[in-house]
Amino acid sequence: MEEDRKEAVPQYYYSEKEWDKVSDYIEQQYGKSDFVGHEIVSPDIHCDIVIVPPTEKQPYYKLVTMGAGAYKMNVPKELRSYVCDRAEYVIFLPKDWDIESDKEEDYWPIRMLKSVARLPIGAEDWLCDSHDVQLTEDGSPVAENTGFNSCVLLSSLGKNGQEVKPLKLGLFGKKVAFYQLYPLYPEELQFKLEHSFDELMDKLDAEKNMVINIHRKNYCK
Fold first, then answer.
1. What's the distance, CA 11 to chain centroid?
2. What is the pTM of this model?
3. Rounded to whole angstroms, what are the CA distances from 180 to 18, 111, 127, 208, 221?
4. Distance CA 170, CA 206 (A)
5. How many CB atoms lie within 10 A of CB 211?
6. Which of 24, 31, 32, 78 could form a disulfide with 52 if both were Cys (CB 3.0 to 4.6 A apart)?
7. Which positions ≥6 away from 210 have C-beta within 8 Å?
């Protein structure tokens, strides 16, 4: 996970000690990475993508942002006692996914990670589990190979199958949460908006399989 991080100076960044602590925690929770997608241009946060390769026990890629948590989100005062104001984001991809392709049908999960990571900065807002994000302005699909147009944030699962707890970065209660991005179809997003997160989760099979499946059933169509 050693990458040159000094070629750009983002507005929000981890200290060297914090960066190493986050890197070690990602390896501890998700597995050893063999590649880090290093961000070249970082105007706000420096958002690298840690790629943990498939294993025999967990035959899928785990992609984790590293750097998003340097930004302190604008969490309402009344929620700060139980909602983290810093976060990193996670997706799981099938083992046959072309992880090195820059074609949009292959790259959109990485674009999703980076877009969600930067959303709280541009909107001066905050994110936590149960929140949803529409990924395209007009609600169209993210790519030609899928009907997904949005995602919902869930508690992330680590390599042991257990929920990944927030990482304590040091004193003064500075903690970073890890949220799983689960893509949604337009009808599923609409159902959540009209009903509730809990009712949507009752319909989805998200907790059974967090790995992205572009051909999965639309549970609200």
1. 20
2. 0.92
3. 21, 15, 12, 13, 23
4. 32
5. 16
6. 31
7. 92, 154, 157, 180, 182
The DSSP symbol for 129 reads T
- The tokens for 214 are 């572009």
Condensed to tens digits (0 to 9), the pLDDT of residues 94-125 reads 999 999 999 999 999 999 999 999 999 989 99
Distance CA 20, CA 96 (A): 30
Place of tokens 């929770």: 29
Three-state DSSP state, 93: strand
**Which of helix, strand or coil describes residue 72?**
coil
Mapped onto helix, strand or coil, the DSSP state of residue 178 is strand
196's tokens: 């509730």
Report the alpha-carbon distance of residue 107 to residue 46 in Å, rounded: 18
